[in-house]
Design brief:
The structure holds 2 protein chains of 2 kinds. Chain A has a domain at 71-253: MetI-like (MetI-like fold, Orthogonal Bundle), CATH 1.10.3720.10. Helix content of chain A is 75%, strand content 0%. Chain A has 11 helices and no strands. Chain A has helices at 2-34, 53-56, 69-102, 108-120, 123-145, 156-180, 184-192, 197-226, 229-234, 241-252, 256-280. The radius of gyration of chain A is 24 Å and the shape is globular. Chain B has 2 domains: 1-36, no CATH class; 52-277, MetI-like (MetI-like fold), CATH 1.10.3720.10. Chain B contains 12 helices and 2 strands. Chain B has a two-stranded antiparallel sheet with strand order 1-2. In chain B, strand 1 and strand 2 (45-48) form a beta hairpin. The longest helix of chain B has 35 residues, at 60-94. Chain B starts with a helix and ends in an 11-residue tail after the last helix. The chains are: A mainly alpha, B mainly alpha. The interface between A and B is large, with 85 and 77 residues.
């Protein structure tokens, strides 16, 4: 009896711990989001009443985010970069999946580990090493031929390459996991019915991979959108949103407009997360 | 398919992989190491040499920062494991089927939010005019606001917060694969909670523990935003030194040397961790 009681007490304590942990997880996000609606010039207590000014107001000092030209251009550049990174990394992730699931070649295990490595290299180092290589190449070309390759100078192109270099690992892992579960007899059946290789790929295999491709594209998009460490070293004059926000936070001091941006980003990525969960859910038709 | 066609398609599939790894990972790192071995002897004249590394050793601030980064990262990793393991165990083994999915998703929520916003949230909570301090004043526990920000504890809290998901996710997936019968057998044979944990659950979860620790450690050691924003000017994080060399001082040679040192140091730590735990990279991080 006493034993059962201590067990019950232990369990209650355990549950309280889990609950406390989730409060810990949520607290900073709630703080970052909720001050967007505080009618004050500073993101701090006391609560001065509800307002939407930090989103929509068009005059200083309470310039809302949708009228703040620098934040909006940061948002735009982040979108462009993230879309390019997502497209590229899903394409290469898909070819990598076929390479590692369907093919046999020497040193396959070694190459598989090599594929994982970019994910554990610190982002700062990826950033500087790509910056160094690109600048070396650009300088060498300039010294030899007198041609300036502006693509290899800090800017959107390098940011895309830098983020692509480690995000491709994520997309490859997600798509590989899905391709491993594919039932090869489906392809064989299509071949027996006279379908060509391209047609089988297009009508059977790729549709099967689609949920993983969409989900990994969403993850790639979000990781790119949020990335700071790698981007910091490769960014040119077109700053994406995280860099713009950081400059504001570090130099100007924060106003609740940053909370408004945070709120919009959290809602946006939450919605995308839901989409990625929904597309990965097993199809009720039993596919 | 004929043999030639097979070979051609293998080459075509291998090409994107090879280009990615070669152009964006291997060559840049070689370039970084080469740059770090260059010494400036006169304007625009360079010589091969270990000067940048010798400078690092001769300047206590530099290697102290590296040691501090490494030891704080180890501490953060240990804390993340201690705090995260019970949560992962709860999600994988105790929660009901439906609650499990929901809790797991809730764990992932901060993952979808950028580092910057997470750090910003902590700033709003911890600073002198922040939420916690204001609540303490309001409740009468202190007369004046307390600054919780800009110290090591704030940096550690922020870092644990940032990386703990990468600890929980691999733990949940390994614990998920463990049969309940193994745990029950342990209890039936007379084991107490601690014995079952130590002799059955932890050995089984080892690949997940190691995978989580590696990722957590690398992310912490390589983090930039959280230590700087929460630690303030005196955070002394090694990535900050790299940034200073590269961007502020425009001393790329020394910045590249620092980058290589960070990479070497973290890799050696990970290798040691794998050695000590008897695991390999292939059955921990690469296991999906």
């Amino acid at each position: 009896m006493a034993h059962a009681q201590t067990n019950r007490a232990l369990m209650a304590g355990y549950k309280a711990y889990v609950a406390a942990f989730f409060i810990f997880l949520a607290a900073p996000l709630i703080a970052a989001g909720s001050f967007a609606f505080n009618d004050s010039l500073f993101p701090a207590l006391p609560w001065q009443g509800f307002t939407l000014d930090w989103f929509f107001n068009d005059t200083e000092p309470k310039l809302g985010m949708f009228h703040d030209r620098r934040l909006l251009s940061g948002l735009y550049y982040s979108f462009v970069i993230a879309a390019m990174v997502a497209a590229l990394s899903v394409a290469v992730g898909t070819t990598n999946a076929f390479l590692f699931v369907r093919r046999e070649f020497p040193f396959k295990t070694f190459f598989y580990i090599v594929m994982i490595v970019p994910l554990v290299i610190p982002g700062v180092i990826l950033g500087i090493s790509i910056l160094v290589l690109a600048s070396n190449v650009a300088n060498a070309v300039y010294d030899r031929f007198g041609v300036e390759i502006s693509l290899l100078r800090p800017g959107i192109f390098l940011v895309v390459l830098g983020q692509f270099s480690f995000i491709t690992t994520i997309t490859s892992l997600v798509i590989t996991a899905r391709l491993k579960k594919f039932d090869l007899s489906l392809e064989e059946a299509a071949f027996n019915l006279g379908a060509s290789r391209a047609r089988v790929l297009w009508t059977i295999t790729l549709p099967y991979l689609r949920p993983a491709m969409i989900a990994s594209a969403i993850v790639a998009f979000l990781v790119s959108f949020e990335n700071f460490n790698t981007t910091l070293f490769l960014v040119g004059s077109e700053s994406p949103l995280t860099i713009t926000m950081y400059d504001r936070m570090a130099k100007v001091g924060s106003t609740p407009v940053l909370n408004a941006v945070s709120f919009v980003l959290m809602v946006g990525s939450g919605l995308l997360a839901l989409v990625s969960v929904a597309v990965q859910r097993p199809d009720p038709s039993g596919q | 398919m004929t043999r030639d066609a097979k070979r051609l398609s293998l080459i075509l599939l291998f090409a994107p992989f090879a280009l990615w790894i070669l152009l964006l990972i291997v060559l840049p790192h070689i370039g970084m190491v080469a740059l770090s071995l260059r010494e400036k002897v006169a304007p625009r004249i360079y010589e091969f040499g270990f000067g940048n590394y010798i400078d690092f050793l001769n300047e206590p601030i530099y290697w102290n920062t590296l040691l501090r980064t490494a030891s704080m990262s180890l501490l953060v990793t240990a804390l993340a494991l201690l705090i995260g393991f019970p949560i992962a165990y709860y999600i994988a083994k105790i929660a009901g089927r439906r609650a499990r999915g929901a809790l797991f998703l809730m764990c992932l929520i901060p993952l979808w939010v950028s580092d910057l916003i997470r750090a910003f949230g902590w700033i709003l909570l911890l600073r002198q005019t922040g939420v916690i301090s204001s609540l303490l004043v309001w409740s009468g526990m202190t007369d004046e606001g307390i600054e919780f920000l800009y110290n090591d504890a704030a940096v550690i809290v922020g870092l644990v917060y940032t990386v703990i998901l990468f600890m929980i996710v691999p733990l949940v997936s390994t614990l998920d694969g463990m049969g309940d019968d193994m745990i029950e057998a342990g209890y039936n044979l007379g084991g107490g909670h601690l014995t079952v944990l130590r002799r059955i659950i932890i050995p089984y979860a080892m690949p997940g523990i190691v995978a989580g620790c590696i990722v957590t450690f690398m992310l912490t050691a390589g983090s930039y935003l959280t230590p700087i924003l929460l630690g303030g000017k005196n955070s002394s994080w090694f990535t900050e030194q790299i940034y200073n060399q590269f961007i502020t001082r425009f001393n790329w040679e020394s910045g590249a040397a620092f980058g290589f040192l960070l990479l070497a140091f973290t890799s050696i730590t990970v290798w040691l961790g794998l050695r000590l735990s008897g695991q390999s990279l292939a059955n921990t991080v690469a296991r999906t």
